[in-house]
Amino acid sequence: MRIEQLEYLAAVTQHGSLRRASERLHISQPALSEALTKLERELGVTLLDRRRSGARISRQGRDLLQNMVDVLEAVDRLRQAAGDQGSVTRLLRIGTVNAATSTLLVPALRLFQDRHPGATVEVLDAQQPEIHQGVLEGSLDLGLVNVLAGDDAPADLAGTALVHGRPVVVLPADHALAAQPAVTIDQLREERFVAMRAGYLMHRFAHRLFEGRMPRRCHTTDGAEMGKLMVAEGLGITVLPDYSVVGDPLERTGLLVCRPIAGDETEVTLVLRHREGQLPGRVRDLRAALVEVARGRRTPEPTGTVMEVVPSQTA
């Protein structure tokens, strides 16, 4: 067994195909495939499910993944201790549904970077099912997802609740409804609406809020960041978790405001998903940075009161 073989498997797991992994590693695809086949033969297990659509880590490979990552982390520390300036630190990947990006994720990345100047983090926008699958299969190290009260936690994944809040109406600052203390569902239904695409939690929440009768005039988009931009440009109004809006640059500069939904008591939580068991060192440190920023965060509610966020473990 060679260290390169473990690095090859980690690359295929991250990039989802032999072709993309070979391009990243700068080796030929046949050579990559042969090296992994030899590793499978030596270990006596099938590590990859090879399909026309790509290669994914197998169930047996997933059971061994943590051990392989631990070895690669140890090798990386050894190379750094030996002064190997050419060593390549393992890329960390975090998936996000674009919630609390500017107020939580970016400050946490800055804190992590200060502590690990040589680390590389890749942030990927994705829908919740894709994030859960990526974390489970190892193509993502961490995932940020929104969860409604009562939602079942995915099997084989652990979670840390970072921020608790409520869905709010997001409006241009000069919109007529911004003058009201709260917005009713009937008023929402009469406005041009910016909805999240199917696969996002706020898509499911909007359909539940409107009882299946969505506003007649409706745009759809991927994620909160584009939704806020569309609202700021006057293309409609939307509904998002308050922690995705309060403190955002568009809200701080006065382009957006948010108001409670009259009569709605729904709770929504931003949860950090990761695999069960001991996390690799730098993944653990990135998780700690996210928890630290969340713990120090104080989010003004739309009504003017203040909510203190205290991370807790979710089932």
TrEMBL record:
Can you give the residue ranges of the HTH lysR-type domain? 1-58
Q: Which domain of life is it from?
A: Bacteria
Alphabetical list of CDD domains matching this protein? PBP2_LTTR_substrate
Pfam families registered for this protein in UniProt: HTH_1 (PF00126), LysR_substrate (PF03466)
Keywords (A to Z) from UniProt: DNA-binding, Transcription, Transcription regulation
Question: Which InterPro entries does this UniProt record tie to the protein?
Answer: LysR_HTH_N (IPR000847), LysR_subst-bd (IPR005119), WH-like_DNA-bd_sf (IPR036388), WH_DNA-bd_sf (IPR036390)
For this chain, the family text in UniProt reads:
Belongs to the LysR transcriptional regulatory family.
From the Swiss-Prot or TrEMBL record, give the protein name.
LysR family transcriptional regulator
- Native species: Nocardioides oceani
